[in-house]
Write a structure and sequence with these properties.
The chain is of the alpha+beta class and about 500 residues long. The protein is built from 18 helices and ten strands.
C-alpha cells in the first residue's frame, strides 16, 4: 500500500515490491529506489537518476522546493553545537600557563573552546621536544633534528605510546569501562592537559565532588535553555517511564523530547500510591502544566491498561494532546504473545531448563565451553521476551555442538547421565528431540524480524518514527515468506 507522500500523485507502485518500484506517470520510467528516487527523477537534480523529459514545470518546481526545505531543515539541525561548545562565554578569561620545566621560559597560549577545553589546531606545539627542537625558518633543521622526518615521527610515536600506556593503566586501576574512550569529552580533556603543560596536578577528590560538579551543573543548565527555545519553536513530547530499582521502589521518570534531544525533568517515587489510571492522570496533568500545555503535543508511555486510561483522560482535558504508546513496549508485548502459543511456550521452558541445568554445574559448564570455544549461551531474563528469542537463536546456532557434546566420551564418562533425579538424562532427551529444534526454528523465524524492528525503535541514533511503519510491513512480509505464506506452518 502506498504512503501519503505527494510523489505518489505522479507515480504508481509496482505490485509486490513494497513501494520500492515506482512507474512515472509522465514518461513510464521505472524507479527502483522508492518514492524519494522517483521525486529526484521528476526534479532532475541527481546525476545518478534518469531525468524525466515530460514532467510539467509546476510539478518539478513543487518537489524542488520540497527538497530545498528539507535541506535547510537538515542544515539547521546540523547546526546544533557539541555539548562542550554549545554555550558561549562560559569562561570569560583565556588561561595563560607557565610550566615548571627549565626548558620553558616563555608563556604559551592555546585557543580555548567555550567550555574551557582546548581547540585542536593543525600544527599544535606538543611538548618539550618541539620546544627544544623547533624547525629552522630556512632549512627546517635545528641541532640535527628535522621536524616532519621519520625520526621526528618515531619520537612522537614513542611519546604517544608512553602516554596511552599510562592512561590505560589508570583505567585498569580504576575499573573504568573500555568504551569510555569513545566519549566525545575525552579528546578535549587530553587537549586541555597538553595546553597546561608539564607539572599539572591531577584533580583532587574534593574538586571532583564539589566545585567542578557545580560548574558542570551550571553548564548543563545553560545547555537546557537551548532545549527550552527548541520546545517553544517545534513543541515537544512528554515521556513517562516507570521502573523498579534494586530496593524495590516504584519510580517514574519524566522527560521532555524535542528535535534537539531528550531533557530529564524529574524522577518521582510512587511506591506509596496505587498506580491507577486516575492517579497517573494527576501526575501527567501536573507535568503537562509544569512543561506548558501549549508546548506539549503528545504524551508517550507504555501501553499498560492504567496508562491507557490516563492517556484518555489527558486527551479529554487537553484536546490538542495525543497519548501515544511506546513502540518498544508494544513490540515486547508482541513477543510475549508469541510465547503464549502452547508449543512455543513448552519449547522455551525446555530451553530454560536445559540452560539452567548446564549453568548450575561447574564441570558441565566448563565442558560446554570447551565444545563451544569458550562462548556462552545467552541466559533468558524473566521479563525481557526479546532475550528469550536470542536464547533460542543461540541454541539454534549451537545445535550441532550441543548434540556432539551430549554424545561425547566426556559426557558418557561423567556423573551427569546417571545423576539422581534424572536431570542429565532429561536435558539430553531435550537436545535430541526433533520437535524441540523444529519449534526453535519456528520461534526464530517469527521473532528475528521483530527483533530487527525493536533494535530500530530502541536506538538513540535517529528518531525511528519515520521508519516504524515501513519496518513493521517488512517484518510481517519476512515472517509470512519464511512460512511460505501459510499460517498453519506456524
Amino acid at each position: 500500500m502506498a504512503s501519503n507522500d505527494p510523489g505518489w500523485g505522479y507515480g504508481k507502485p509496482v505490485e509486490g515490491k513494497v513501494n520500492a518500484w515506482v512507474v512515472c506517470d509522465f514518461c513510464n520510467f521505472l524507479s527502483k529506489g522508492g518514492i524519494i528516487r522517483h521525486k529526484h527523477h521528476l526534479v532532475a537534480d541527481s546525476p545518478s537518476v534518469k531525468k524525466c523529459t515530460k514532467v510539467p514545470v509546476e510539478v518539478q518546481k513543487r518537489f524542488k522546493d520540497e527538497f530545498q526545505k528539507r535541506k535547510q531543515h537538515k542544515e539547521e539541525l546540523n547546526k546544533i553545537p557539541h555539548f562542550d561548545d554549545a554555550i558561549v562565554d562560559l569562561d570569560n578569561e583565556d588561561e595563560e600557563d607557565t610550566t615548571n620545566s627549565d626548558f620553558f621560559q616563555s608563556k604559551s597560549k592555546r585557543p580555548m573552546s567555550s567550555s574551557g577545553s582546548a581547540v585542536i589546531t593543525k600544527n599544535p606545539t606538543k611538548g618539550p621536544l618541539d620546544v627544544m627542537y623547533p624547525p629552522s625558518e630556512k632549512t627546517g633543521k635545528r641541532k640535527g633534528y628535522l621536524v616532519g622526518t621519520s625520526e621526528h615521527k618515531e619520537v612522537h610515536k614513542k611519546l604517544r605510546l608512553d602516554a596511552v600506556q599510562k592512561i590505560c593503566r589508570w583505567m585498569y586501576d580504576a575499573g573504568i569501562p573500555f568504551n569510555a574512550v569513545k566519549c566525545d569529552s575525552f579528546g578535549p580533556a587530553l587537549e586541555a592537559v597538553v595546553v597546561h603543560g608539564c607539572g599539572m596536578k591531577p584533580p583532587s577528590y574534593h574538586e571532583v565532588c564539589v566545585p567542578m560538579l557545580k560548574l558542570e551543573m551550571e553548564h548543563t543548565k545553560k545547555l537546557l535553555t537551548l532545549n527550552e527555545a527548541e520546545k517553544k519553536s517545534y513543541k515537544c513530547s512528554l515521556m513517562a517511564d516507570g521502573w523498579r530499582d534494586r530496593k524495590g521502589r516504584s519510580l517514574i521518570n519524566f522527560l521532555v523530547n524535542t528535535p534537539r534531544g531528550s531533557m530529564f525533568i524529574e524522577s518521582l517515587d510512587a511506591s506509596a500510591c496505587s498506580h491507577t489510571g486516575e492517579y497517573l492522570f494527576k501526575l501527567f496533568d501536573h507535568f503537562i502544566k509544569k512543561t506548558g500545555p501549549e508546548d506539549v503535543v503528545q504524551i508517550v508511555t507504555d501501553s499498560a491498561s492504567n496508562n491507557v486510561l490516563a492517556g484518555r483522560l489527558v486527551e479529554e482535558k487537553y484536546p490538542h494532546i495525543y497519548w501515544t504508546p511506546c513502540a518498544a513496549h508494544c513490540i515486547d508485548l508482541m513477543l510475549e504473545d508469541i510465547f503464549k502459543m502452547p508449543h512455543l511456550k513448552k519449547t522455551l521452558d525446555k530451553a530454560i531448563a536445559a540452560n539452567s541445568y548446564i549453568y548450575n554445574r561447574t564441570l558441565l559448564l566448563n565442558m560446554m565451553r570447551e565444545f563451544t570455544g569458550q562462548r556462552d549461551m545467552v541466559r533468558p531474563a524473566k521479563t525481557r521476551f526479546a532475550t528469550a528469542f536470542i536464547t533460542l537463536n543461540c541454541f539454534r546456532n549451537h545445535k550441532k555442538i550441543l548434540k556432539k557434546m551430549f554424545t561425547s566420551e566426556a559426557w558418557n564418562k561423567s556423573k551427569f547421565p546417571g545423576e539422581a533425579g534424572g536431570g542429565g538424562a532429561q536435558t539430553a532427551n531435550t537436545i535430541f528431540s526433533p520437535n524441540f529444534w523444529t519449534n526453535i526454528d519456528i520461534a526464530v523465524k517469527v521473532g528475528e524480524p521483530l527483533l530487527t524492528v525493536l533494535r530500530l525503535v530502541d536506538s538513540e541514533k535517529k528518531p525511528p518514527m519515520g521508519y516504524i511503519y515501513e519496518a513493521m510491513d517488512r517484518a510481517k512480509e519476512r515472517i509470512a515468506s519464511s512460512f511460505n505464506n501459510k499460517k498453519r506452518q506456524v
